[in-house]
Amino acid sequence: MKIFSDIDGDKMTLVEPSIEQAAKMEQYIMRLSEQLDEVGFIEEYQNGENQKGKKESTESKAYSTMVKNYNAIIRTLLSCLPETDQKQAEDEVLDYLKRRV
Fold this sequence. Notes:
The protein is mainly α.
């Protein structure tokens, strides 16, 4: 929120829900990552007697989708900043993410 403190009130009304959604998505990504550590990216399946094999796990699909959507919302949020602030905001976001890992 600190990064966006300089944008005007009308724009902030539109940006704030996206910030909240990005924060939720980060939590989902962390949980999915933990689940992936347990189940892996590949799961075996069996459809009837003769059809079986391996496929991408449900958790892997959800994780991939969530990461793509998270990256899109972060790019959208950064684009709402004035160009002069975008680089600094990108650096702050990267620093934050590095601390989280």
